[in-house]
Amino acid sequence: MEFKIFGSLGIARDGSEIQVPTGKPRLLLAMLLCHPNEAVPRERLIDVLWGDSPPKSAVDNLRVYVSQLRKALGDSARIVREPRGYALTVKPGELDADHFEELLAAARACDDPARAGTALRQALALAQGTPFADVEHIGPIAMTALRLEEQRAAAAEAAVETDLALGRNAEAIAALYGLIGTYPLRERLRRNLMIALYRSGRQAEALATYQEARRVLVEELGIEPGPALRDLELRILNADPALDAPLPRQLAAGTPPTSPPTTPAAAWGSWLWAAIPLLSCGYGTPWAFIYAAVKRRSFNLWLSALIYVALCGVFLVMPFTDDDGLNQLDIIPMLALVSLWLGGTCHAVLVREHVFTATSSADMSRRARAARGAILVLFALVATAGYVWLEPPA
Fold first, then answer.
1. pTM for the whole structure
2. pLDDT, tens digit (0-9, with 9 covering 90-100), for 190-207
3. Residue 187 burial class via C-beta count within 10 angstroms: exposed 0-12, middle 13-18, buried 19 and up
4. In angstroms, rounded to a whole number, what is the distance separating the alpha carbons of residues 4 and 22?
5. Is 22 left (phi over 0), alpha (psi -120 to 50) or beta?
6. Are 119 and 27 in contact (CB under 8 A)?
7. pLDDT tens by residue, 149-164
8. What is the Cα–Cα distance from 286 to 151, expressed in whole angstroms?
9. Which of 27, 183, 297, 363 is the most exposed place for a label (fewest CB within 10 A)?
């Protein structure tokens, strides 16, 4: 048995179409398909079928419509009467909307744009036509139709973005013109079209696309384009080199782009800088600290680096001796401990921010994250132990 929601409501058995009764039986079938394998209360069904003015015979009429649907299905056990109402049994793979959503989930979970694009196009092939196209959109039917239509539009946008990620700009442009005709108010489609045109050497057309989007939004909604669209116009005007690179795959609106892969040279460089405090017995720590401050563009790290360098100068310049009264105040041990703390902080920052940047925490398993944390603590302890052994604080 196959149940079809997209386009005209339909049922097929063994490849043959089943004639679904028109009128209220058809509306009843749509309601049951909105809640497959769930009991829909009789009162709710009556409210959808007759609105605020049901006839006195509504309950009896409902039984008749259920009987007609059972006869059409050829299986009386398909529609079950329960204490709360009626439930339509739908087995896995029988409802096109369920299969559609499964393919969308598979595409979102896929890291390969080519495979994701294939899954998305299979989903779109199932979703031909407006959901419940020949049924009145009221109550749960309207909500289900809106949800599926939004998913269908998002899937079409994501399929185009897989083309952009693979450098198929011509295919993306052709698809986007058609989609914009169907969804003229979706700024994401306009943005992707501008990018595809720009990458195809059609900068003037990309800018004209922005002006067209602005005109439509102002006329239809009375609003200006959003920040993303305005920013893209400026980047195109300035010929931003970053626009030439393929888009990161974003199968859902608002999904953050993934970090670019770290090259082997950059990874080895991070290891080298992180090991400098150990390899130099602590004397290279200030330089490693400054390197970390520059890479992270952090004012706090710059301030900490200057304090660390100043403390190192204290040890080199101020002639503290055993007879110095300052020793009685434990100033030298205090400065030594502060410098050790700053040195350990520097080393931890380097290891965390520059050694383990190739893979984000969200992409790592729980065991990998725990191992990374253990290695970080081990490095910090080894560094601190080396400082204490070479420059004892007391």
1. 0.58
2. 999 999 999 999 999 999
3. middle
4. 15
5. beta
6. no
7. 999 999 999 999 999 9
8. 54
9. 297
